[in-house]
Amino acid sequence: MFGDVVRLSRWLDVWECHGVAGEDYIPAVEIGRVRAQGLVDALDGKGAGLGQLWDAYQAYRAAVPDTVQWVPRWDVCAPEGVKYLMSSAASEGQWDPQMLDWTIDDSRLIDILFDEMPPGGEDWWIPLYARPWHRAAVVDGYPVEFRVYLLDGVVRGVSSYYPQRPLGDEWLPWAYACWYVAGQFGSEFPNCTLDFIVPHERADDPPSPENPPLWLESGPHHGEARGAHPCCFMPGKTNGVALRLQPGAIEPPGRRRAGEILAMLTEQDDSPETHFACTPPAACVEGAAHAAE
Ligand SMILES: Nc1ncnc2c1ncn2[C@@H]1O[C@H](COP(=O)(O)OP(=O)(O)OP(=O)(O)O)[C@@H](O)[C@H]1O
Ligand SMILES: [Mg+2]
Questions:
Q1: Alpha helix positions (H), 103-257
Q2: How far apart are the C-alpha atoms of 223 and 151, rounded to whole Å?
Q3: Mutation test of ligand 1: which of 74, 94, 195, 238 has the most ligand atoms closer than 8 Å to its C-beta?
Q4: Confidence class for position 209, pLDDT limits 50, 70, 90
Q5: What is the pLDDT of residues 224-241, one digit of tens each?
Q6: What is the CA angle 18-22-28, rounded to 5?
Q7: Does residue 156 line the site of ligand 1, with CB under 6 A?
Q8: Taking the model in full, what pTM does it have?
Q9: What domains can be seen in the chain, in order of their start residue?
Q10: Of residues 19 and 136, which shows the higher confidence score?
Q11: Closest C-alpha among 261, 223, 36 to residue 127
Q12: Cα–Cα distance between 198 and 145 in angstroms, integer?
């Protein structure tokens, strides 16, 4: 188990307990829960209740307008569609209606689920959240976003989150602002990474306590099993500040055209066996509307 730091639910608690101001992080509303064992059974073709789940999913999709700018987020990771769109620059760093979808055969979720299923984990319920889309500053198709590496209570490094796209030195103050925010928690925090975006509407003003980066979420530290990606850093060398790909860094995925990636997502199997929703549709819609406020 690589522990709780992977779960957004944990960070929602941390933000509340540590008095992080509500406007300094992206909120999340729980819109449903899915039982991990139920997903595993469904993947094994044993999902007795899948017909019902499919009906709920259809109703949810019909009820949520494609114009509401929120994104689903599993407790443990973003749905793979969101991740693909962002990491391929297919969305140009903007919200896309494709982000509203999630599927049962989500490879990112399944990887974590199989690794993390605790012994006797039949009762592990995984929350699904809706989060309002918050537009980040965009440079060359990718959001301006930073990952901070915190180890033993000390910030060791900050990297631009998207190594696909080099950032100029004009972004250094924002990188240091992320360093500063993450450094305030010190030894109260476990080893982890902290991800921040630079809000689009405030990006031209210098960062300050009144103009902070926006905390998106956090995750495991780099270097442990299933640890965080080193972004622009060479694996194992996540010290200092990296705005661009460093020597020895992992080669980033290629840029893909919007049409190409959207076609790939649309081609996904659309059958009841692979989609699900486990929440009464009304609750989903209420959550979505609330999150979009
Ligand atoms: N509400 C949002 N507003 C703006 N951008 C978002 C939002 N949610 C997700 N994103 C974008 O989508 C990307 C993936 O989302 P998220 O960080 O939740 O996924 P993840 O599974 O935790 O990724 P990683 O494993 O790299 O930490 C983010 O890095 C960010 O660029
Ligand atoms: Mg993460």
A1: 107-116, 172-183
A2: 10
A3: 195
A4: very high
A5: 777 899 999 999 999 999
A6: 100
A7: no
A8: 0.87
A9: 4-135+265-292 (no CATH), 138-242 (3.30.470)
A10: 136
A11: 36
A12: 6
